[in-house]
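Why run this: before we spend reagent on co-expression, it is cheaper to look at a predicted model of the complex and decide which construct boundaries make sense. The entries below are exactly what would go into the expression plan.
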Amino acid sequence: MYLTPEQEAMLKGEYGWSTAKAMEIIVKVGESLGAENLVKIVHAHISGVSFSNIGEHGARFIRDFYEKGGRARVYTTINPGCVDYSGLQSIIDNSLINAQKDIDNALAKMGFNPVFTCIPYWYRPPSPGEHLAWGESSAVIFANTFYGGYTNREGGPIALAAAITGYTYNAGLHLSENRRATVLVTTAPDIDRQVIGAVGLWIGDNIREITVIPFAKHLTFPELKILLASMAASGSHAMSVVPGLTPRGTYIEEIEEKIVIEKNDIDKYIGDEYPRGSSVLGYVGCPHTTLMELMEVARLLERYGSPRKGRLLLTIPAEYTERYRLLINRLKSKGVEIAAGTCPVVSRLRKKYDVVVTNSGKAAFYLRKIHGLKVRITGLREVIESVYA
Ligand SMILES: C[C@@](O)(CCOP(=O)(O)O)CC(=O)O
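The model came back. Tokens follow.
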């Protein structure tokens, strides 16, 4: 692999142990993928930071990089951890708080931005053609598809190494010729946008290639977020093309196959109806809610009093609790549980509910798989109704 004199110096240890180790990781992975050189990145997003996922070995790996001098060379954001720092909720189990704090302190001291969110594009929207090194599959697919950023779907250690060196290997979706969409996917007219998360799970499960999804042009920003995150959760998708949305010049469209998704294809992803009288955990915020979604939830809640059949959980970026305090208080006054900087995919729940009702295909995928919960996918309004009406 060709390395510039600066990259060679990093590898030789002239910038310290952490930079050398980080460079070694990137070069080794790059070589195994046939990369001919490295590419400069403008934004790293570090996943693999939740103690409940990475455990003590993972935490040690991160602390080592910090203690031996690793510092951010580019703008870097951090994915959610497994605890809620807001103190505004009783759903997420905070018993791992000290272990998570150790990780978060090391990350913050390395100069990474402690947003603790899976929507890093909310903090720095990528420009078309910019190279990034992002972990967190939902963010990766959103960056490539909506913003035309260039990022592979990185694991936590590579994103960390890229943050410390400012480079990643030049392969995969960093190369224009690999950004080739070949499968055109359409949806039958009777499929409701409320279950767009289930559509995403079907695509992830059944298609390997990069897709063109014209129907996604009619979705709202939150719905697109949910669709793409679901595709990336049940499959290995890192990019899709939405004609009219995906920036031109960031992809090649060469359709080789056409697929129509029928209504009955997605039934099993939506989940079963649940009996009346079930205790319900309504969940919104996978990927994390943006300000507009919070406002929409507050608006939908106006006609209701307190929760009647369970609880409603919202998960938001860490700093929202301070920044949007009045709005958060309004939601709290309706009995909404709000967790900041975390989510049920990377944490543990305190209590078991009969069913989780959510608009998120990704949350449904992981809550079924990791927590063995019964989950039903539906629209935002219906999630709220399932708890409050
Ligand atoms: C499921 C997922 O969102 C969990 C994130 O956890 P972690 O940041 O990898 O610990 C990872 C992903 O989808 O890339």
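Residues 179-269 form one domain. The mean pLDDT is 97. Bring this page to Monday's planning discussion.
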